[in-house]
């Protein structure tokens, strides 16, 4: 059965958005219907903007301060670019919905700047959000699910509140693997019933990874300098690495989870996705603060400036471990030229490299069984409670969601065996807590043994594309990780190196990633082929 979506759900997607845009620079306050009176600038109309498609947030902020263009012009131009690349040409399908208030907000921020008021370093800078991050505005928050389109959000996520307070412009919501990959085994990464299939801008038929696929693709394609994803089990790190951008999974608890559609209370975290390491640090400056509604943030270290340690010589005196052997399925080191080049760049930067046996991070078949069981129980434990809290939601139980997907199978046609398996199990809180505690404690022991035993400042993951998933000990430990572009493989897909560190070492890990980034210059813009 096919579903006819309400008009509001389609108002600002793809071609529909482009058809509503006017050519007048004298934009009036926007109507609820969308951007019908907005301005969109083409590359030919504003060369200053077209030359800054891949600029960092800092570079854009400097240009805004110098009055080279306005936030209204910037947002207009980026929307035009995003619609062109999402709905025409390569059809990347990265943005699931644009913010109908974006241009009005940009205009207000321009007026504030003109009056001498600048809210913070992100004043007038566009940011994209994954579709599972709450915004209490005209946009939807649906985790890629059509079932959640009509469900209301009554309050911004805490991290969204922080962005708005600092003057950031929420440009829109990005596509994602539906329900953050907690729906069915074997679903295509970057696919959702609401948003369709997101494509890799470097190789259109290549892997995008997930679940924060749209957030990574949008930044890689120059839709915005900043985006936020969420990571439960590699959902920021993997898409960032596969789309050639920087992704960070902070220490769990560094960023508030309040107002994010949950997958796991123990593993979930928001994370920045940017082109440059420094921009990820800027986002942490805004977002890494105490949220009284998320007790995990009570332990956040007081760090006023995450950019302070970002220096060209940041690698000097650092000890970094790298895998002495690779996971099954990986090539040997000499068949990974980008990884070898990354090691050379680290050495040139002054780091001491130590080969480390990652055997303790390997998963046995028993571990796979335990993890699968935990994730099934997590869905049963977390999702029904969340569904019941969304006003206007047509689904309030797992069975409701399963029935909805089957009813509207034309759009939601992929399998949902994870949902069905979770719905069928008899939940046992004691078993859940025991299994969760076991995996966390084992992961922390393994990571601490590797890091402290070799006196490492950071550990490099396996160069295999899914190493960020295979080093699951860091994920279950709740420890931070940063992935940085390292080049391109023979198939035209980006490669990356991923740095893992101890708990609360986020600032130090960013410094190491920055030192590598500056010494490698491996970032490449996509050619959309």
Automatic annotation (TrEMBL):
<dbReference type="InterPro" id="IPR023631">
    <property type="entry name" value="Amidase_dom"/>
</dbReference>
<keyword id="KW-0732">Signal</keyword>
<feature type="domain" description="Amidase">
    <location>
        <begin position="75"/>
        <end position="459"/>
    </location>
</feature>
<protein>
    <submittedName>
        <fullName>Amidase</fullName>
    </submittedName>
</protein>
<feature type="signal peptide">
    <location>
        <begin position="1"/>
        <end position="27"/>
    </location>
</feature>
<dbReference type="Pfam" id="PF01425">
    <property type="entry name" value="Amidase"/>
</dbReference>
<dbReference type="InterPro" id="IPR036928">
    <property type="entry name" value="AS_sf"/>
</dbReference>
């Amino acid at each position: 059965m096919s579903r006819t979506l309400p008009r509001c759900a389609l108002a600002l997607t793809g071609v529909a958005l482009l058809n509503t845009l006017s050519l007048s620079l004298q934009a009036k306050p926007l109507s609820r219907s969308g951007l019908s009176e907005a301005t969109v600038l083409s590359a030919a109309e504003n060369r200053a903007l077209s030359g800054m498609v891949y600029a960092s947030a800092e570079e854009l902020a400097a240009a805004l301060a110098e009055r080279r263009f306005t936030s209204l012009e910037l947002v207009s131009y980026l929307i035009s670019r995003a619609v062109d690349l999402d709905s025409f040409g390569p059809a990347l399908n990265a943005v699931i919905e644009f913010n109908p208030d974006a241009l009005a907000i940009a205009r207000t921020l321009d007026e504030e700047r003109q009056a001498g008021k600048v809210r913070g370093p992100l004043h007038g800078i566009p940011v994209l959000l994954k579709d599972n991050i709450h915004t209490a505005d005209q946009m939807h928050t649906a985790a890629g699910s059509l079932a959640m389109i009509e469900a209301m959000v009554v309050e911004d996520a805490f991290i969204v509140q922080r962005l708005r307070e600092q003057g950031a412009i929420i440009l829109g919501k990005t596509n994602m693997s539906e329900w953050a990959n907690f729906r069915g085994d074997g679903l295509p990464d970057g696919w959702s019933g609401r948003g369709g299939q997101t494509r890799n801008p470097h190789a259109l038929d290549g892997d995008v990874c997930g679940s924060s696929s749209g957030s990574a693709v949008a930044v890689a394609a120059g839709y915005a300098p900043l985006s936020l994803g969420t990571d439960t089990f590699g959902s920021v790190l993997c898409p960032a690495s596969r789309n050639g951008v920087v992704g960070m999974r902070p220490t769990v608890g560094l960023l508030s989870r309040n107002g994010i559609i949950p997958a796991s209370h123990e593993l979930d975290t928001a994370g920045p996705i940017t082109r440059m390491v420094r921009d990820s640090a800027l986002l942490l400056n805004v977002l890494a603060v105490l949220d009284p509604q998320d007790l995990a943030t009570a332990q956040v270290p007081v760090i006023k400036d995450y950019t302070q340690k970002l220096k060209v010589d940041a690698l000097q005196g650092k000890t970094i471990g790298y895998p002495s052997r690779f996971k099954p399925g990986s090539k040997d080191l000499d068949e990974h030229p980008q990884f070898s080049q990354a090691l050379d760049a680290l050495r040139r930067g002054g780091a001491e490299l130590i080969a480390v046996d990652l055997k303790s991070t390997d998963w046995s078949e028993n571990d796979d069984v335990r993890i699968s069981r935990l994730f099934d129980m997590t869905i049963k434990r977390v999702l029904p409670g969340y569904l019941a809290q969304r006003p206007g939601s047509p689904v309030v139980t797992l069975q409701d969601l399963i029935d909805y997907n089957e009813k509207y199978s034309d759009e939601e046609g992929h399998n949902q065996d994870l949902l069905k398996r979770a719905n069928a199990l008899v939940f046992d809180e004691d078993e859940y807590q025991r299994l969760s505690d076991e995996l966390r404690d084992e992961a922390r022991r393994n990571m601490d043994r590797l890091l402290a035993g070799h006196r490492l400042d950071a550990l490099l993951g396996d160069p295999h594309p899914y190493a960020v998933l295979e080093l699951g000990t860091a994920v279950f430990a709740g420890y931070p990780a940063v992935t940085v572009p390292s080049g391109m493989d023979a198939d035209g897909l980006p490669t990356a190196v991923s740095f893992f560190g101890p708990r609360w070492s986020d600032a130090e890990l960013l410094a190491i990633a920055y030192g590598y980034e500056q010494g490698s210059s491996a970032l490449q813009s996509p050619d959309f082929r």
